[in-house]
Structure formats: structure tokens, C-alpha cells
């Protein structure tokens, strides 16, 4: 599904080249669960966002089903983000003045679907994640676990094949952490979505099919 | 409740949820527009008033026969050669812009009881318009007819008494004269007395206020009466013109010379220069004020829009993450800036117009009336400013590395 060839992302900081990721080559099979681990600054998040079409690499290739993502024009990369991948982030990133349902609808707003269909899709996802009674709540009226579930529902809005999760349990207590990991695990195992999880947590990583440990931008 | 949630709902929801910031932003835009409009209204009316005041200086162009001497503007018409009275019509039908009043006259020196005076034939209504000093004395009951400003027609406001006086003045009949103050004094004449001129008896209907010029030594009769009395036929010795100062700068004198090539066209330099310079100064002040206010207004409005874009970087990152294109982000902010521009333009127009009307009147007694066209300009300027204030920060925001925005979260 993903094929990475000599992928490098270099930042220039105070006239010094910093390799966030350094010549990574990798194959990721569709439907697999990959955990990316490593210390702070090891390049985990950069690798994840590069897979998600958010960071253009300095050199190398990121291919999704044979298609060079960064060879596409910006508009097509945006389509890729909208249709193919769903992001789940540590800080949830919900729009504070929109209800849970409206937050889930956000990725659908730019699609030519009827408002009723969009609402039905968002409502179904929230129901699936146990939030049918919280649809009209604003993010601040929800618990942290509920907020992350809304974020997962939003990531699933366009039925993506790939879920990219960056420390999704980082802000949660142990009980909620297990709850969210279970949801993500089910999305991988039961719905055959590819799950790529960035985590510091060894317990979370252990549930993955494959663990990539990064240090100084390289897989070790 | 959310069945109609669509792309535009994002804009309305953001505006509604941040009411405090919306109000402060709207206030900034409205006050910016209000100040621009208020200053513009006051300077426009000031220009008009200054132009009217300048017209009090009277006629400023004189058309004389070629051979006439123009060494003294005020007596150049006395005993001068003549030109046909038709020339007045030539000028009037030429529709030259800036010619607001034509006053033909025929003047000759006469001797009465060893006193040398000047008999001047005039068309009374035209003469009154070119002699604001007569009008301001309140003797005539006729308001100033301006050259650069809008002509005031005071039919509806005149008192009955003034209407009656004006009717007499305008219908200066064949056996009536007006006397300059010095002429009346030297001959011992007053209103209601009679005077013999060239073998005819005339009734003195008015004694004119003192002007300090040779006008005080004149006896005025109707132009056609004087032409008959002197046996000149339809000839005149001069045409006084009240020319608009802007038109004079634009070459009115040359245009008049082209129409009447066998005449001598001259102007009163000090009056014209004062009018032209003051007009130019008012225009410059108006433009300078507008530029300053538009720059200051644009910066304050732009600052608000900049702050709004900056505080929404997290949202922008989220939108980009879920697949929004640059076009969507621009649309999101430009629709908002247009809405703010429309609302700010309307509120600013209302505040600015009311302030100009009340404050302007309070301090200067200038009467400022609302101009509907300014509403459209206010909205357009407000939209322009909010759009300019939005474009650059959004332009920067959509080009920033989304990963950097995400890392700020």
C-alpha cells in the first residue's frame, strides 16, 4: 500500500541541517497495524505527517498504491487527505464552536453530497462510537475520552483506508487509553483499515503487527 | 437543528460564537468608515462654503472693446468704445462652463450742476448678481447667486416684504434710476426724489450702499433707457462676468477670447488668484485628510483581520488536515471579510453621516445632508479595506507548513 524510498526531510535551523527523517525506505501492507515509536525528536510525527500528505519531503518518494503523492499538484494532495487518510491527533483538534455532529461533518463540507446524507453519515459514526446522545454537545461539554471519540468519528467521515494516529491516547487516563486503543484496533482488525500509530507507550505499541523504532530520523 | 449545516455555516457559527470579537471588529471597521465619511462630508461642504464666500468678491472678468483702457478695472467701461449687445447672447449661448452671470453695461460721463458723474445703463437682475455687496446690504432682498457653489433660489423663503422689494428692483422701469451713495450725496438726492438726465426726468427709487469705488459716483438706469438716451443703439461698453474660479484656471479667459475675437477680455488678478488658491488649498487639505484617514483606518481594520486569522491558525491546520484546499480557506475568510465590510460600511455610513450632520452644525453651522451615494461608497471602501486586511494574513496562513500549525496545537 505505502512504499517509501529513501525518504528524507531536512529542516534548516540556525544555519544547521537537521534531518527529521533520514533516508527511510519502507513498505507498508494494506490493512496492517504499524506502531512508530522513539524518543522525542526522533522523527515519528514527521514520518506520520509525511505519509498523510502534510509534509513535503526534502528528497525521496512516498507512494500510495503506486502513486507518488508529492508528485501530485497541491489540490490533488488535499483530495488525498480528504478521501484516503483520516487523522487522529493527541489534542483532538475539534472546532470549539461546532457541536460534535458538526465537527464530524467538517470533512464532508467540501464534498458534493446532500446535507441530509452528510448528517446521516456523521450521526451513524457518532452512534457507532457511543455518542448518539452527545451529538449536539460542544467539545467543551464533552469528556476527554468523548472528545477523542468525536475526533475518531471525524477521521472516519470519508471512510478512509488509512488511519494516521499521533499519540491519540497521550492526554487520556489509563482506562480511556484502553478504550480508545480498542476502538482503533477494531477499525484495523474488523474493518481492515490500515492503522499507523505514533506512540511513546510500549503497551500500545505491543498491539501492533509491526513496530518501527526511530532514532535520529532513522529506523533502528 | 444541524440539518442545514453547510460550508457557509462555518462562517456564521464563527461570527456568532465570537460575538465579543465580532463586535469589536465591527466597531473598528465602522469607526474607520465613519471617520472617513465624516471628514469627507465636512471637507466637501467646507469647500462649497468657501467657494460661496469667495463669490462675495463679485464679478471677476471684464469683456471690453479692443480699444478700451483697462488701467482701472472699476472704470474701464466709462466712455469706452462700444461693442454690440448681441455679444452677451453669444457668450450665453456658447454654454461655456464656469460662466455664471453676465452683466452688460453702457457707461458715459455726464455733468450735473458742475458735478461729474457717470450714467450707467444696466440690466438690473444681472447687475445685482454681479454685485454681492449690494445684496449683502439687505437692501435688495436677493440672495447671493454663487458662481462656484450651488445657486440659491430663495423664492420659497423670502418674506412678503422682500418679495415686493425684489419685484421693484427687477423691474427697474424706463423712468427710474438708482443712485450711488456719493452721487446722491453730492446732488442732495434721496429715495422718491427726481433727477433730470439729458432732458428726461427720472425718479430715484434706490440709493445704493457705499462701496468705496467709482461705483459710488454712478447713476444707474435701465440699459435700454440709457442706450436710447445716448443714441447708441444696441451697443454696450462692457460685459462683467462672474466666472467660476476653477473654470478660470482651466482657461476660461482664452475661450471667451475665441468666442469674441474683437474684444479685450481681462480679469481681476487679486480676486481670481485668491479664489483659485483657496480652492486649490481646500482640495489639497481634503485629499490629505482622506489619505491619512484611509491609511489609519485600513491599518486598524487590517490589524483586526490579521489577529482573527492568527488566532484561527489551529482551525486552519485542522481544515487543511481534513482536506480543505487553499481555495476553501480563502473563501472562508473572504466571505467573512465581505460580510464585515457590508455591515461595517452601513454602520460606518450611519455614524459618520450623523456625526457630520450634528457635530458639523454644532461647530461650524454647516448644513450637511445625507448623500445616499456615499452609502455605496462606504460599503465598497469597507469591503476593500477588510479584504486587503484579510488577504495577506490568509495568504501567509495557507502557505505555512501545516505540520508547523499542527505542532503549535
Gist?
The complex is a heterodimer of chains A (220) and B (409). Chain A is of the alpha/beta class and 220 residues long.
Describe the overall structure.
The complex is a heterodimer of chains A (220) and B (409). Chain A is of the alpha/beta class and 220 residues long. In chain A, 33% of the residues lie in helices and 28% in strands. Chain A has helices at residues 44-51, 74-83, 100-105, 115-128, 144-156, 174-189, 202-206; strands at 2-13, 16-28, 33-38, 59-64, 67-68, 85-89, 162-166, 194-198, 210-215, 218-219. A 6-stranded mixed β-sheet of chain A has the order 6-7-8-3-9-10, with helices on both faces. In chain A, strand 1 (2-13) and strand 2 form a beta hairpin. In chain A, helix 5 runs parallel beside helix 6. The radius of gyration of chain A is 17 Å and the shape is globular. Chain A starts with a strand and ends with a strand. The mean pLDDT of chain A is 90. Chain B is of the alpha+beta class and 409 residues long. Chain B is built from 15 helices and 11 strands. Chain B has helices at 7-17, 19-55, 86-93, 124-130, 132-136, 160-170, 181-187, 223-230, 245-249, 252-259, 269-311, 313-321, 326-364, 372-399, 402-408, and strands at residues 61-65, 83-84, 99-112, 115-122, 176-179, 194-197, 200-207, 218-222, 235-236, 238-243, 263-267. Chain B has a 9-stranded mixed β-sheet with strand order 6-7-5-8-4-3-10-1-11. A two-stranded antiparallel ribbon of chain B has the order 2-9. In chain B, a hairpin with a 2-residue loop joins strand 3 and strand 4. In chain B, helix 11 (269-311) packs across helix 14 (372-399). Chain B is elongated, with a radius of gyration of 32 Å. The two termini of chain B are 30 Å apart. The model of chain B is unreliable at 136-159 and 161-169 (pLDDT under 50).
Amino acid at each position: 500500500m505505502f512504499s517509501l524510498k529513501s525518504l528524507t526531510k531536512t529542516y534548516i535551523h540556525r544555519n544547521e541541517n537537521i534531518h527529521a527523517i533520514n533516508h527511510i525506505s519502507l513498505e507498508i501492507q494494506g490493512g496492517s497495524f504499524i506502531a512508530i515509536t522513539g524518543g522525542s525528536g526522533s522523527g515519528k510525527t514527521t514520518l506520520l505527517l509525511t505519509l498523510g500528505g502534510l509534509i513535503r519531503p526534502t528528497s525521496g518518494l512516498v507512494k500510495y498504491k503506486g502513486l507518488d503523492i508529492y508528485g501530485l499538484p497541491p489540490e490533488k494532495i488535499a483530495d488525498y487527505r480528504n478521501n484516503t487518510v483520516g487523522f487522529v491527533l493527541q489534542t483532538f483538534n475539534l472546532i470549539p464552536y461546532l457541536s460534535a455532529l458538526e465537527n464530524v461533518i467538517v470533512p464532508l463540507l467540501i464534498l458534493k453530497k446532500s446535507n441530509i446524507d452528510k448528517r446521516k453519515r456523521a450521526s451513524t459514526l457518532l452512534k457507532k462510537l457511543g455518542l448518539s446522545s452527545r451529538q449536539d454537545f460542544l467539545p467543551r461539554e464533552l469528556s476527554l475520552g468523548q472528545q477523542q471519540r468525536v475526533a475518531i468519528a471525524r477521521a472516519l467521515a470519508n471512510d478512509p483506508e488509512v488511519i494516521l494516529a499521533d499519540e491519540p491516547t497521550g492526554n487520556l487516563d489509563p482506562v480511556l487509553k484502553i478504550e480508545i486503543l480498542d476502538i482503533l484496533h477494531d477499525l484495523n482488525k474488523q474493518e481492515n483499515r490500515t492503522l499507523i500509530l505514533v506512540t511513546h507507550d510500549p503497551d500500545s505499541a505491543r498491539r501492533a503487527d509491526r513496530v518501527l523504532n526511530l532514532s535520529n530520523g532513522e529506523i533502528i | 437543528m444541524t440539518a442545514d449545516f453547510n460550508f457557509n455555516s462555518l462562517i456564521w457559527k464563527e461570527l456568532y460564537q465570537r460575538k465579543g470579537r465580532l463586535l469589536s471588529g465591527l466597531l473598528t471597521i465602522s469607526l474607520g468608515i465613519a471617520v472617513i465619511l465624516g471628514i469627507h462630508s465636512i471637507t466637501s461642504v467646507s469647500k462649497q462654503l468657501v467657494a460661496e464666500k469667495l463669490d462675495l468678491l463679485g464679478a471677476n472678468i471684464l469683456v471690453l472693446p479692443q480699444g478700451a483702457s483697462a488701467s482701472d478695472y472699476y472704470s474701464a467701461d466709462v466712455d469706452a468704445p462700444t461693442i454690440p449687445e448681441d455679444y452677451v447672447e453669444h457668450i450665453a449661448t456658447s454654454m461655456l462652463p464656469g460662466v455664471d452671470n453676465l452683466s452688460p453695461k453702457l457707461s458715459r460721463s455726464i455733468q450735473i450742476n458742475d458735478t461729474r458723474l457717470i450714467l450707467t445703463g444696466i440690466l438690473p437682475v444681472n447687475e445685482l448678481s454681479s454685485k454681492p455687496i449690494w445684496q449683502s446690504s439687505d437692501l435688495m432682498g436677493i440672495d447671493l447667486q454663487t458662481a462656484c457653489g450651488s445657486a440659491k433660489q430663495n423664492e420659497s423663503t423670502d418674506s412678503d416684504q422682500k418679495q415686493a422689494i425684489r419685484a421693484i428692483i427687477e423691474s427697474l422701469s424706463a423712468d427710474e434710476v438708482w443712485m450711488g451713495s456719493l452721487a446722491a450725496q453730492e446732488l442732495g438726492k434721496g429715495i422718491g426724489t427726481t433727477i433730470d438726465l439729458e432732458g428726461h426726468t427720472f425718479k430715484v427709487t434706490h440709493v445704493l450702499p457705499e462701496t468705496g469705488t467709482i461705483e459710488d459716483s454712478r447713476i444707474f438706469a435701465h440699459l435700454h433707457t440709457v442706450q436710447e438716451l445716448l443714441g447708441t443703439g444696441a451697443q454696450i461698453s462692457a460685459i462683467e462676468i462672474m466666472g467660476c474660479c476653477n473654470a478660470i484656471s482651466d482657461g476660461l479667459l482664452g475661450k471667451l477670447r475665441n468666442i469674441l475675437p474683437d474684444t479685450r477680455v481681462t480679469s481681476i488678478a487679486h480676486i481670481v488668484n485668491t479664489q483659485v488658491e483657496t480652492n486649490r488649498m481646500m482640495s489639497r487639505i481634503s485629499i490629505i485628510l482622506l489619505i491619512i484617514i484611509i491609511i489609519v483606518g485600513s491599518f486598524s481594520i487590517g490589524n483586526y483581520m490579521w489577529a482573527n486569522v492568527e488566532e484561527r491558525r489551529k482551525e486552519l491546520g485542522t481544515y487543511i488536515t481534513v482536506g480543505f484546499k487553499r481555495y476553501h480557506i480563502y473563501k472562508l475568510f473572504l466571505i467573512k471579510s465581505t460580510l464585515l465590510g457590508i455591515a461595517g460600511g452601513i454602520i460606518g455610513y450611519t455614524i459618520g453621516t450623523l456625526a457630520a450632520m450634528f457635530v458639523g452644525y454644532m461647530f461650524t453651522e454647516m448644513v450637511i445632508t445625507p448623500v445616499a451615494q456615499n452609502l455605496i461608497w462606504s460599503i465598497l471602501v469597507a469591503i476593500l479595506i477588510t479584504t486587503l486586511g484579510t488577504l495577506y494574513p490568509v495568504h501567509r496562513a495557507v502557505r505555512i507548513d501545516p505540520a508547523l500549525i499542527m505542532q503549535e496545537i
